[in-house]
Structures are given as C-alpha cells and as structure tokens.
Amino acid sequence: MKNIFYCFGFLLTVLFLAVSCNNKNSGDKEFTGIESDTTHIPELINFLEDNQLDSIIQLDNGLKTVKGFKSIPQDGDNFKKENLDKIFWEDISAKKSDFRGASFRSARCENSDFSHSDFRAADIRWSLFDNSNLTNCNFDQSRLFHVHVNHADLSNSTFRGANMFGMEGHFAKLRNCDFTGALMKDSEFVEADFTGSKAVKAKLIRAVLKDSKLDSTDFSYADFTGGGLEGSTFINAKLRHANFQGGHLQGADLSGADLYGCNFFGTEFESTNLKGAKNIPDEIKPFINEKGLATGIWQDMKQTDK
Questions:
Q1: Closest C-alpha among 191, 169, 179, 165 to residue 221
Q2: Nearest-5° angle of CA 269, CA 274, CA 280?
C-alpha cells in the first residue's frame, strides 16, 4: 500500500510538471505571437533607384487597362509614367486605372472616383483629392507630399513605404489601411477614422490626429514624437514599443490598448483613459486614479536612463 501511495504521488508530480511546462510554452508562444512583423518593410520612394522604380511599374498588377486620354479619363485607363501635372479632373471616374510612375503634381481631382486604382511609385505632390473615392487603392512607395484628401474615403488602401509628409485628411476615412513604414511627419488628420488599420514603424512625428479614431489598430514601433493626439481614441490598439515622447494625449482614450515598451517621456496626460490597458509602463502608473484616468507629465530623466 505504501508503494502505491509513492507511485501515485510520483505520477501527480510528473503530471504537474508537464502541465507547468505546457503552460510556460503556451505563454512563450503567445508572447512571441503578439509582436508585430517588422521585416520586409519597403523603403521610401526617396531611396529607390531608377531600375527599382521601373520594376514596380512593369509588374503585372492584374488590372485590365487601355491607353488613356487626358481630356476624357475613364475607368480602366492606363496612365503609367504619364505627365499629369496640374491636370483638372474634378467629378470624373477613373476606377481600376493604372497610374504607376505617373507625375501627378498639383492636380485638381476633387469629388472623383479612383477606387481600385494603382498609384505605386507615382509622384502626387501638392494635389487635391478632397471628397474623392480612393478606396482599395495602392499607394505603396508613392509621393503624397502635402496631398489633400479632406472628407475623402481611402478605406482598404495601402500606403506601405509612402512619403505622406504634410498630408492633410481632415474627416477622412482610412479604415483597414496599411501604413507600414510610411513617413507621415507633420501630417494632419483631424477627426479621421483609422479603425482597424496597421502602421508598423510609421513615422508620425508632430502629426496632428486630434479627435481621430485609431481603435483596433496596430501602431507598434510607430513614432508619435510631439504628436497632437488630444481626444483621439486608441481603444484595444496594439501600441507595443510606440514612441509618444513629448506628445499630447489630453482626453485621449487608450482603454484596452497594449502599451508594452511605450516611451511616454514628456507626454502630457489629462483625464487620459487607461482603463483596462495592458502592460502600462511603471513610470506613468502613479498618474492614474481609481477611475483609470491619467493626469500628469512624466519627466524623470533618471527613469529614462535605466
């Protein structure tokens, strides 16, 4: 009987260790699984050679297009590498068209439909697309320097490696977009909707996203240094390793967000909602009251040096 008890105890110990190891492995998998992919991020167009740009333009993108005429743009037109500078295309439809490598500078294209079009490697600087339909478009590695898309719908579009410096999109819809590796410095998107979008390693230095929705997004490793994020919402967003240094989060809502490794040095909090947020950095925990609201500015340099 004594030997039976010893055997039973031994079996329980083995079972406990097996369960513990399994839980540990599961935890390891869960941790590595939530880190965002930072590989294969495309370079900005500014750093591409001519042969690299040509390879983008010559790829088969699946669009069935025919040679387009500037005077009468139509759906399915091909304007690859065309000079469309200062074109006046208001209230037109050019859906499923190919604008790769085109020069589209200072164009007037308000109230138009460019949905499902390909703008990769295009130069679209200083152009106006206010109130236009730009859904399901590909703007990867394009130049969108100071482009205006106010009140436009750009949902389900991709901007990987795009130069969006100074871009303006007040009240724009940018749901389920991909801004991975994009340069969005000094851009302005007031009351815009980024719900469900991804912007891994995007540079949003001094960007203004006041009162915008960034719920359920992935902005891991994004740089919001000096950003105007007052009243914005990051509900259930993935913000791992994001840099909010010197930013403004007054009245913002980060409830349920993952803040692992975030840098909040010099960031302004005022009634900032952190209720249910995950991995809150220790340095800002003292600013949070019993309601989950944070108020204060973390400025302890000694903490930063650790």
A1: 179
A2: 95
* Secondary structure E strands in the chain: 66-67, 77-78, 268-273, 293-297
What's the pLDDT tens digit per position in 45-98? 777 778 888 888 888 889 999 999 999 999 999 999 999 999 999 999 999 999
Residue 200 in tokens: 């891994």
Encoding tokens for residue 247? 């930013």
Dist. CA 88–CA 100, nearest whole Å: 19
- Averaged pLDDT score across all residues of the chain: 88
Q: Which of 140, 60, 61, 133 is nearest to 93 (CA)?
A: 133
Which residue matches tokens 């914005």? 232
Q: What is the largest CA-CA distance in the chain?
A: 97
Core vs surface per residue 185-205: b (16+ CB within 10 A) or e: bbbbbbebbbbbbbbbbbbbb
Query: Do 264 and 283 contact (CB within 8 A), yes or no?
Result: yes
pLDDT of residue 58: 87
Structure-token match 């740089």, residue found:
223
53 touches 101 (CB < 8 A): yes
| Residue 267 CA: distances (Å) to CA of 202, 204, 220 | 19, 15, 17
What is the spatial distance between Cα 288 and Cα 138, in angstroms, rounded to a whole number? 41
Cα of 98 vs its chain's centroid, Å:
24
E strands, 180-291, in order: 268-273
CA dihedral 226, 230, 236, 239 (to 10 degrees): 0
> Looking at residue 114, what is its pLDDT?
98
Per-residue pLDDT at 33: 47
Residue 11 has pLDDT above 80, yes or no: no
Amino acid at 31: F
